């Protein structure tokens, strides 16, 4: 495909003079490349009766075919393997989410910076339990959004739910942890939300910031809303100011987002694997999430879980940790578990 496109440029009338000056280049990159020039040599050899040279000039020999087909075949098999593993991961964690009895209040304790989790479409918050438990073990209070359910609401409505939660919980300097569609909701909060100032930054995993061209072929408005021309996708693309506070983590091959998740102005973290779901459990993803929660965007008093807080800064640090002002820690220095807005 690339060779054909370059050849078209060289054959444009404005480029004819330059093309004629470099015949060796044009003969190499014409559509069909080596195959085209090889066939010409083959025909010339046949017309002269030189069958030996005719066989040697034939590009479709078994060795050449194997050479050209091998990498493509290997790449397709690798992607197929990634695809199968990806859906196996998704099915496993969807099943576990159905049976897990963890509750929204189970992860609210901790003295680190508060983390708010926004799952992807058709995903309950328990789908992200591996990362939730990891961050909670690290000392972060982790907030999940039960009202999102399986996140089938429009992006704007999902952003309103997050907005309301941030205000009700009294959180500040929050790190959003989002997967897929959750990244669109998180960016909408950061760019247009009433509580945008409460958000320090976001780690978005496999988020379709530019949409997905597959969306137009899918059934239902829930999935077609990921089209690159959807008004919300376009609106978010035209709001780049929030990008500098986003860490975008994505696989080199995402079967759902062929455009990829690279975001201009953000810190982009490509992962050398394939998948849309299983990347949540990738070592590089976990490291990026922990780094952002522990050190990202330079929040005062949040440089590490249980970071130094005291004196005049104590009230500010309580807010950073998601703790209500005026509360007391067990050691008398102030603090305590953050509020649960669900009561």
Question: What is the topological layout?
Answer:
Elements lengths: L1 H9 L5 H6 L1 H7 L4 H14 L3 H7 L4 H38 L15 E4 L10 H9 L4 E2 L11 H15 L4 E6 L1 H12 L6 E7 L15 H4 L6 H7 L8 E8 L13 E8 L8 H13 L18 H8 L22
Parallel strand pairs: 1-2, 1-3, 3-4, 4-5, 5-6
Helix pairs in contact: 4-5, 8-9
Detailed description of the structure:
With 343 residues, this protein is α/β, with parallel strands linked by helices. It has 13 helices and six strands. The chain has helices at 2-10, 16-21, 23-29, 34-47, 51-57, 62-99, 129-137, 155-169, 181-192, 221-224, 231-237, 283-295, 314-321; strands at residues 115-118, 142-143, 174-179, 199-205, 246-253, 267-274. Strands 2-1-3-4-5-6 form a six-stranded parallel β-sheet, with helices on both faces. α4 (34-47) runs antiparallel to α5 and α8 (155-169) packs across α9 (181-192). The longest helix is centred in the first third of the chain and has 38 residues, at 62-99.
Largest sheet: 6 strands, parallel
Give the oligomeric state: single chain
Average residue pLDDT: 76
Number of strands: 6
Task: Summarize the amount of helix as a percent range.
Answer: 40-55%
Order of helices and strands: HHHHHHEHEHEHEHHEEHH
Distance between the termini: 59 Å
Helix-strand makeup class: alpha/beta
Q: What percent of residues are in strands?
A: 5-15%
List segments where confidence is low: pLDDT < 50 over at least 5 consecutive residues: 1-48, 50-71, 303-338
Shape: globular
Radius of gyration, in angstroms, nearest whole number = 27 Å
Number of helical stretches of at least 4 residues: 13
């Amino acid at each position: 495909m690339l060779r054909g496109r370059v050849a078209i440029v060289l054959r444009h009338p404005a480029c004819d003079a330059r093309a004629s000056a470099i015949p060796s280049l044009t003969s190499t990159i014409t559509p069909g490349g080596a195959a085209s020039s090889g066939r010409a040599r083959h025909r010339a050899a046949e017309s002269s009766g030189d069958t030996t040279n005719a066989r040697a000039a034939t590009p479709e020999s078994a060795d050449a075919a194997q050479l050209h087909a091998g990498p493509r075949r290997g790449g397709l098999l690798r992607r197929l393997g990634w695809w199968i593993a990806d859906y196996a991961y998704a099915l496993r964690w969807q099943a576990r989410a159905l049976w897990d009895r963890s509750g929204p209040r189970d992860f609210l304790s901790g003295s680190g910076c508060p983390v708010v989790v926004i799952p992807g479409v058709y995903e309950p918050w328990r789908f992200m339990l591996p990362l939730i438990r990891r961050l909670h073990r690290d000392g972060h209070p982790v907030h999940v959004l039960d009202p999102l359910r399986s996140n089938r609401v429009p992006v704007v409505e999902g952003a309103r739910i997050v907005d309301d939660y941030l205000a009700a919980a009294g959180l500040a300097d929050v790190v959003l942890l989002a997967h897929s569609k959750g990244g669109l909701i998180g960016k909408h909060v950061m760019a247009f939300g009433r509580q945008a100032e409460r958000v320090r930054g976001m780690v978005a995993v496999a988020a379709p910031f530019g949409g997905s061209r597959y969306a137009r072929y899918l059934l239902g408005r829930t999935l077609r809303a990921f089209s690159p021309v959807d008004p919300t996708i376009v609106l978010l693309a035209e709001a780049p100011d929030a990008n500098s506070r986003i860490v975008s983590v994505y696989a080199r091959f995402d079967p759902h987002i062929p455009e990829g998740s690279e975001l201009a102005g953000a810190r982009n973290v490509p992962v050398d694997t394939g998948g849309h779901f299983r990347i949540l459990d990738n070592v590089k993803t976990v490291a990026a999430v922990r780094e952002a929660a522990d050190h990202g965007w330079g929040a005062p008093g949040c440089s590490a879980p249980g970071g130094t807080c005291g004196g005049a800064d104590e009230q500010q640090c309580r807010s950073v940790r998601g703790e209500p002002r005026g509360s007391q820690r067990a050691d008398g220095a102030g603090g305590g578990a953050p509020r649960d807005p669900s009561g």
